[in-house]
């Protein structure tokens, strides 16, 4: 196995560290907070009730799909992953100059796939030739570095962040809005702050739909869909996995 391939697992880990940091402090994005025709102001719940219900439903969920477009410390990050509470994940991660890669994690085994250009840049021409357009199976010890990239870890990281409970305080404003056509309650700070917003569905499930932060060094948007509805994630077929000598 080329020595250059031994450092490949660290590359996605760098990108994921940025994603986790951004998620923890409240991923950003702008979103409309204009009133919906079906959301009645008269039935507006209190901010603490909405926040706590969204937190409870998120942490109890069996699966979810996360999609974010963010900037953290000047680095542009793109995240599009679906995952289960058990830790299985599928999707893609893009991190500025690090490039974009596809990810599949099933039962603790992690597979990465990207372009020849990505592998050439990050692991060398020899590695790029061996991997081609197939998946690269990470060694078990390296796969452990990816344990934080599960929907459970991301949700816990976000809701356990010290700034998130601020959405449940009396200074939080609740307005009617929508996300991708779905009615939502929009939680934001009444007295300035960093303009962060939390979008929570108006139905009984009170699912988190979006976390947004339009200003600051960490900004962008993170949308949440397919709560408890992500299809089972399977391993790539043997023909899709690159055969690497010594691995």
UniProtKB/TrEMBL annotation:
Q: Which UniProt keywords apply?
A: Signal
- The region annotated as signal peptide is 1-24
Looking at the record's lineage, which domain of life comes first? Bacteria
| Identification of the protein by name | Lipoprotein
């Amino acid at each position: 196995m080329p020595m250059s391939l031994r450092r490949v697992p660290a590359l996605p880990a760098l990108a994921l560290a940025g994603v986790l940091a951004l998620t923890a402090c409240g991923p950003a994005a702008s979103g409309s907070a204009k009133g919906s025709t079906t959301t009645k102001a008269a039935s507006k719940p209190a901010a603490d009730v909405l926040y706590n219900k969204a937190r409870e439903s998120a942490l109890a969920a069996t699966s979810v799909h996360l999609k974010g477009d963010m900037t953290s410390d000047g680095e542009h990050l793109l995240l599009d992953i679906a995952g289960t509470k058990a830790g299985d994940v599928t999707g893609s991660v893009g991190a500025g100059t690090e490039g974009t890669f596809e990810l599949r994690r099933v039962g603790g085994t992690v597979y990465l796939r990207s372009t020849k250009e990505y592998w050439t840049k990050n692991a060398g021409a020899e590695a790029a030739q061996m991997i081609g357009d197939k998946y690269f199976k990470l060694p078990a010890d390296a796969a452990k570095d990816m344990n934080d990239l599960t929907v459970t870890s991301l949700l816990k990281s976000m809701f356990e962040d010290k700034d998130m409970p601020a959405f449940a305080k009396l200074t939080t404003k609740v307005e009617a809005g929508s996300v991708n056509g779905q009615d939502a309650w929009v939680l934001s700070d009444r007295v300035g702050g960093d303009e962060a917003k939390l979008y929570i569905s108006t139905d009984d499930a009170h699912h988190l739909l979006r976390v947004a932060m339009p200003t600051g060094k960490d900004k962008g948007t993170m949308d949440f869909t397919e709560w408890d509805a992500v299809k089972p994630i399977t391993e790539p077929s043997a023909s899709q996995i690159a055969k690497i000598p010594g691995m």
